[in-house]
Amino acid sequence: MTRQASECPAPGAPDFLYEEHESVGSTNAVCFERARQGHNGSLWVRADEQTEGRGRRGRDWSSPAGNLFTSLLLINPEPVDRIGELPLVAAVALADAVDKAAGTLHLVGLKWPNDLLVNGAKLSGILLEAEVLSDDRQAVVIGFGVNCISHPPLSLYKATDLRSLGYQVPVETLFEALASAFSVHYRNWQKPGGFEDVRRHWLKRATHLGKEISVKTAREDITGIFADLDAHGHLVLKQDDGRQRTIYAGDVFLSGD
User: Fold this and answer.
1) Which domains does the chain have, with CATH numbers?
2) pLDDT tens per residue across span 166-193
3) Quick one: which of 12, 68, 88, 150 could link to 180 by a disulfide (CB 3.0–4.6 Å)?
4) Cβ contacts of residue 142 below 8 Å, gap of 6+?
5) Are 85 and 189 in contact (CB under 8 A)?
């Protein structure tokens, strides 16, 4: 394993490693660099600032100092056939972490698959990426960006930040809460049938459950009632004709937005 000099046990999750930077292009990119260097994973990387932050589908993610930018490197996470559930594991962990750090109860709701919303405005972004390494190991990186003291104007969604909402949450406090919450939910997820606990927690925070939504996929726009999550976290839509349709990827909007 290639070990970085700055590595130490992660605050809040000593079973994970941690390294901290003043400024990086993106914390996801640093994680992949570590993986290509032979790192064994279970590594958190946090930066005060990102200069090349990005979100889902290649969108830019504004990354000024004072907000939380961190990524987690996992190598060969098990069970491998359920890796697609990890974005929801990450969302539940981050939602719990925000509540713990801010001293709130269900401050945030969840928009499928992994956006955190407060009163309909986006508070955070989560980006999962994966790569098969030259030695055939699989590197999975989960990136988190949380608006602690500022938020950008977003073209697709309204945005907000914790300070604007009246909560003074230091980045370090939020990171420690996230590392701790993710460790708990990740270990539970790894157990047989472990996603059902994640699914239940996710649905308790679901902002659009039972409402008519539109889902923009790569090929079409689909409208229906958000009926459920299936056993692997996919969105189940009930359409006008009563049939249910499973959505595997897409952007969700309340109908009329």
Assistant:
1) 8-204 (3.30.930.10), 212-254 (2.30.30.100)
2) 999 999 999 999 999 999 999 999 999 9
3) 12
4) 71, 72, 74, 86, 87, 90, 126, 127, 128
5) yes
